[in-house]
Design brief:
- There is one protein chain.
- The model has no long low-confidence stretch (mean pLDDT about 95).
- The chain has about 290 residues and is α/β, with parallel strands linked by helices.
- It has two domains: about 130 residues, 3-Layer(aba) Sandwich (Rossmann fold), CATH 3.40.50.2300; about 150 residues, Reverse transcriptase/Diguanylate cyclase domain (Alpha-Beta Plaits, 2-Layer Sandwich).
- The chain contains ten helices and 13 strands.
- The strands form three sheets. The protein has a six-stranded mixed β-sheet with strand order 6-8-9-7-12-13, sandwiched between helices. Strands 2-1-3-4-5 form a five-stranded parallel β-sheet, with helices on both faces.
- The protein is elongated and about 70 Å long.
């Protein structure tokens, strides 16, 4: 599990990290610069943050407030580490969005117990969220959650000036599959296509089922030319395969893909519309093609 420790005193940060390593599956990441640590938390999926109160530039309360103002309290738990005994500091920490606190001097048993309890709760929350955000048939994101993920990537590419490309993918002649082999066969085709796409994507990429036989793919830090190579990998893997749809029947399908790179000033909807128009051009040109938006 991904745990972040932010403490401007390196010795203390390393001590906390060593305690946390006693929890199975935990390999903490240390930051002594609170601003750098906050940026990492904003840009990555983490499971627990332990942040010191007294730090230069930003104290622990500032870090918690900055994160919670931009991300939901339903995100990862935060623990305030503080030597301050004033109850007002603890009150402010909880009001800012902290889930627990650990007092200094550090007591290993207490720190480990509190962290383990929050990580267990986090794991359950992540699993419940996964069940609520994953399409039960294809095991990719449902439309709503994919849009949330893609929106965050648009914000991130604006902040850092990095490229971002979105792809729209549609199964060619899918109605013919359903009419000829039945809806169960159509389901097998959709599952297969989602699987082949996921095998072709990198860890930061994401894919969602927008509805029916239409999928969308979000490729962070990827130009249109680079995305075209990814799209062609998906396209070829699907085109070259034979899909077992049961009862001794095998079918072959193709897909059409349109892609668009985000441009300055565009919203997520703008980019998806351009990718959708590119998809339409791919179908107009005879299907089974990858087309980049102008």
């Amino acid at each position: 599990m991904q745990v972040v420790v932010i403490d401007d005193t390196l010795i203390t940060a390393r001590l906390i990290a060593e305690y946390l390593k006693k929890i199975g599956g935990v390999d903490p990441i240390i930051f002594t610069d609170p601003e750098e640590g906050l940026r990492y938390c904003m840009d990555n999926e983490i499971d627990l943050l332990m942040v010191d109160y007294m730090m230069p530039k930003m104290n622990g309360l500032d870090v918690i407030r900055s994160y919670r103002e931009q991300r939901s309290k339903e995100e990862f738990p935060i623990v305030m580490v503080t030597a301050m005994e004033e109850r007002d500091v603890l009150r402010q920490a909880f009001e800012a969005g902290a889930n627990d606190f650990v007092p200094k001097p550090l007591e290993p048993v207490e720190l480990i117990a509190r962290a383990q309890s929050l990580l267990t709760l986090r794991a359950r929350t992540v699993e419940l969220r996964r069940m609520a955000t994953i399409d039960f048939l294809t095991n990719v994101f449902i439309r709503r959650y994919f849009m949330e993920v893609a929106e965050r990537e648009v914000v991130r590419c604006k902040r850092y000036g990095q490229p971002l490309t979105l792809c729209m993918l549609d199964v060619d002649h899918f109605k013919h599959v359903n009419d000829s082999y039945g809806h169960a066969a159509g389901d097998e085709v959709l599952k297969f296509i989602a699987e082949k796409c996921m095998e072709s994507l990198r860890e930061p990429d994401s894919i969602g089922r927008l509805g029916g036989e239409e999928f969308a793919i979000c490729l962070p830090e990827t130009s249109a030319d680079e995305a075209q190579a990814v799209a062609k990998r998906c396209h070829k893997a699907i085109e070259d395969a034979s899909i077992d749809v049961g009862d001794g029947e095998n079918v072959q399908v193709t897909v059409s893909i349109g892609l668009a790179q985000w441009s300055e000033g565009e919203t997520l909807d703008d980019v998806l519309r351009r990718a959708d128009r590119a998809l339409y051009k791919a179908k107009e040109a005879g299907r089974n093609k990858v087309v980049i938006a102008a």
